[in-house]
Design brief:
The chain is 43% helix and 2% strand. By secondary structure, the chain is mainly alpha-helical. It has a two-stranded antiparallel sheet with strand order 1-2. The N and C termini lie far apart (118 Å).
Length: 185
């Protein structure tokens, strides 16, 4: 049989996993299925050979009635007994249960690796103004500084020419520069 300190450590681990991610559940008395699966995964009860996530889901559904949302501590202990022999098949029933308890005791939910930093440099690539094309290119000068309002809005030029006309301002010189080309008044 387990020592009382082992049972206390097991209860602490049960409460940590049951309350994980739920700030309202300070002293959770029931553990939902997703947190049961997290406990089995984080504490390495699921090894991929003897115990899989399907096995833990089946045990959870066997012990918990459809009307209940989670397992109590007593159900949790029964589930561990069911998993112990499956996880450690070469040990006796009591030794296997002790080995499973050692995997869980004093542990808490792991948060490491949940959110990873993207190291692909996509931000650098997307903010490199020298690679911009089309209308976005007009918003920045050669050094990469923004042009402000001039780069965001189409400023209207009332010159009489179509915008970006290459020969803008040459009409007067062409018409008045020719002899006899002046318009009749």
């Amino acid at each position: 049989m387990a020592k009382s300190s082992d049972v206390d450590d097991l209860l602490v681990a049960f409460r940590r996993f049951a309350a994980h991610g739920d700030h309202k559940a300070a002293a959770a008395s029931e553990m939902p299925g997703q947190k049961w699966a997290k406990l089995c995964k984080d504490c390495k009860i699921i090894d991929g050979k003897h115990v899989t996530s399907t096995d833990t889901d089946i045990i959870f559904s066997k012990l918990i009635p459809k009307t209940s949302r989670g397992m109590s501590y007593a159900d949790f202990r029964k589930a561990l007994e069911m998993l112990a022999q499956k996880r450690f098949p070469d040990q006796s029933k009591e030794d296997a249960l002790q080995s499973v308890h050692k995997l869980i005791e004093g542990k808490g939910p792991a948060n490491a690796g949940v959110t990873k930093v993207d190291k692909t440099g996509a931000v650098d690539r997307l903010t490199d103004t020298s690679r911009y094309t089309g209308s976005h290119k007009e918003r920045f000068d050669v050094s990469g500084r923004g042009r402000g309002r001039g780069g965001r809005e189409d400023l209207v030029e009332n010159t009489g020419y179509v915008s970006s006309y290459r020969h803008q301002g040459t009409y007067e010189s062409k018409v008045k520069g020719k002899p006899g080309g002046a318009p009749d008044s």
